[in-house]
Amino acid sequence: MAALVIAEHTNNALKDATAKTVTAATQIGGPVHVLVAGHNCAAAAEEARKLSGVETVLIADSPLYAKMLAEPMEALLLSLADSYDALLAPATTNGKNYMPRVAAKLDVPQISEILGVEGPSTFRRPIYAGNAIQTIEAPSGKKVITVRTTAFKAAETAGSAALHQVPAAADPGLSSFVSEELSKSDRPELTAAKIIISGGRGMQSGDNFQLLDRIADKLHAAVGASRAAVDAGFVPNDYQVGQTGKVVAPELYIAVGISGAIQHLAGMKDSKVIAAINKDEEAPIFQVADYGLVADLFKAVPEFEEALTKAGY
Amino acid sequence: MKVLVPVKRVIDYNVKVRVKADSSGVDLANVKMSMNPFDEISVEEAVRLKEKGKATEVVVVSIGPAQASETIRTALAMGADRGILVKVEGELEPLAVAKILKAICEAEKPGLAILGKQAIDDDSNQTGQMLAALLGWAQGTFAHNLELDDSSATIEREIDGGLQTVKVKLPAVMTTDLRLNEPRYASLPNIMKAKKKPIDEKTAADYGVDTTPRLKVLKVTEPPKRQAGVKVKTAAELVEKLKNEAGVI
Ligand SMILES: Cc1cc2nc3c(=O)[nH]c(=O)nc-3n(C[C@H](O)[C@H](O)[C@H](O)COP(=O)(O)OP(=O)(O)OC[C@H]3O[C@@H](n4cnc5c(N)ncnc54)[C@H](O)[C@@H]3O)c2cc1C
Ligand SMILES: Nc1ncnc2c1ncn2[C@@H]1O[C@H](COP(=O)(O)O)[C@@H](O)[C@H]1O
Q: Is the model's pTM score more than 0.95?
């Protein structure tokens, strides 16, 4: 039997997280279908059809799924679950919201944030902020899985999957969308960026994040933050990298004024190259940094910018 | 309205965990245990609801070993009214916890159950959502702000793109995120008072729930270690290394 990947998308476009989840599904074996649940989401479904390894794309287009609220998503997924052995969603705030409801209703455990597929029922996942890795075997029966997308490569886009409409499930009528306040930025998303520059408590204010913005503009990087910087109100909550924020694994992660608490490292220590600027040479961030600069950031960051300019960036 | 707050006893967030040499798990012998940090936020929110006259009673539940009663006491010292300890030894999966909590919700009939978004030991981020589904209730996960009225809750949620507000019918489940509030410290007089507050003792069997784990842990290993690299002297040297040595810019 097949695996169903629940797409992460913006109705107009598919997110990278979907292509990565498809890769995880392919590794489990068997045909892979993708569900695009949304409203006016035909464009996202068209993109999903191109993902290599996908046999069929299901589209559930209804105002009910415009914001992918957990209660209607549960009803929709339960209406489809009979045909699948495995259901996989990326471990985004959407996937984390609706998937456990589905698992509970199917009376199966959810396997959260898998990092690797060792066999059709064997998976690796992080526990204790990634300080230990569990290898677990799921019981027979359906598998409900969320995927840590940084651990999987995106599927190629050489496919041409069939497209099927699926009807909306009955509206549970429990919840409704009120409003949204999304961070607007022309920069790449944190989870998709090749380069990230993050600031911590050492930045001292939201205004000072402009120092990092300027570097980000030059390097086409995303800007992230530690929990302390978010708690202090320097930057919005969606900047937080870490155990309980976003998990990232860019080519280059630059940590500025961040001490390197285990909860922060949990979200960035799989970056290919880590650079750190911190005035405290004992800061734990230096234990994981490939390149460390012990300096006052208010001096070092402008100098870094200047050196980039000189180097032609 | 009654508010139910499940609290989990976990390894303290400051402890550096060690994987056992035989790969069977992590070493929990003699390490400091505390209330899951997100659960402190839940207790704080519930106690504030009571202080504002929106909640009539705050009931805390912990499922785990006998020592989980300490976690309940901490919540009682923060201002919760009474506790329920469901004694279970050994590994517990979120689904089993959710089933026990479902039975407790059916008996206690809270208007709101407030859970943490994630336990910092298993990092599952499941229990609240599972509980809501089993009860057929709405949920507001990763809560950043809560407005409560008689029949509904308006919950602002921390999502990947920013903030989202949803309105849910009561009774409902809410899970807390970091910025919902700043938990108080219990004062000494309140710690003394908490000693007199009642804690009911139960077992999983009282609720007819089988807690045998469904997932088989084959092994627990350490993640690949990162080596510390080199120190550079200047920002210019950093640019040079990132460009020519690492090739990442
Ligand atoms: C339940 C829970 C979940 C958490 N989840 C997360 C998470 O997801 N992500 C996360 O990041 N944290 C998380 N934390 C918090 C974590 O434990 C740390 O408190 C946090 O990461 C610290 O942020 P920081 O490094 O910015 O601040 P600090 O630890 O205060 O470090 C600031 C650093 O800046 C340096 N500095 C100061 N001034 C300058 C200067 N002028 N120039 C250069 N350097 C300077 C200092 O030397 C210091 O090293 C969590 C904690 C808990 C309890
Ligand atoms: N054994 C337990 N006892 C009480 N509450 C629990 C227990 N396990 C999980 N919870 C609750 O569920 C939340 C999320 O846990 P988890 O789904 O394991 O990440 C926690 O913050 C607690 O509120």
A: yes
